Amino acid sequence: MAEPLESNSKITIHPAVFYRNISIPTNDVFQITVENNNEFPVQISTSTGEFTQDPKTLSNTVIGMDLFNNWFSETSKEIPANTTEKIEVKMDISENTTFEKASYFPTIILHVTAGENSEAVGTNFEYAIPVFLQSLEMIQPDLEIKKLDTEKLSIGQEIEIDTEIQNTGNTYTRPSAYLEFFEVNPLNKDNKTRINTITLNTDQITLLPESILIEKNTWERKSPGYYRAKLHVMIGNKEIDTESSDFWLISQAWLNSLYITAGILLGLIILFIITRKIKLGEKILGGIKRVTQRLFRRRNKK
Length: 302
Fold this sequence. Notes:
This protein is of the alpha+beta class. It has one helix at 252-301; strands at residues 11-14, 18-22, 26-36, 42-53, 60-65, 76-79, 83-93, 103-104, 106-113, 125-135, 143-149, 153-155, 158-167, 176-184, 191-200, 212-220, 225-235, 238-250. The chain has 2 domains: 11-135, Sandwich (Immunoglobulin-like); 143-252, Immunoglobulin-like (Sandwich). It starts with 10 loop residues before the first strand and ends with a helix.
């Protein structure tokens, strides 16, 4: 996604991003719509740079200026007050170009100024539009599950699931992934019943190479039991990677019932042991009494 370097609520710029497949040669035109809702005209000029993506936060940052000037034209245009105009930026990749990598990440930078107009305080700003370029002849898209983590035992009716999906290919990609949940037989670990799914990457985030899509999802289930979360990762309709994690989900009410039942059983066992000891003690005392009586009878006979 493109983020304005400075914001201005009275100027709207779209689209926020461009995607293109490139080859040698390539000629293309990027049309940018600028809506000026100010009561004065603004001047728009363009330049190009390069952007990068933080591998974990996935925020895009412009890291260089004028790096793609040989591919992109520069343009300038005045947008009258309360007017919507289109700006065209041309891309021309000549036959003499050599692609050194499968994907490139330029950005079209719009410089918005209002000159010396006294009403234009805060109007001057820059806006960066990412451009995702890839050569279909060179790309090797790939994704890898770096993490699927759940607690092995969760008390309650929900469990948190941490996932990390990394772009290990050489081009940008928009991961398609979902979590699938099963009730599992704890004895043989076979899936018993498919329950439901949770869709990941609902924001349709595009990952640059090495970037990681990190998500935390919560799954709810009222019935206690042994369950499995299975993560499916796809590019298009092709499944790229899968991984699963098993866990127990036990409700507090069920756990309380278990504690009460265990307490009752423990009490019965203790009572049984005490009763057995009392009976054993009575037998021992009875045996001692009989032995003592016999000894007295023998002594009296003598």
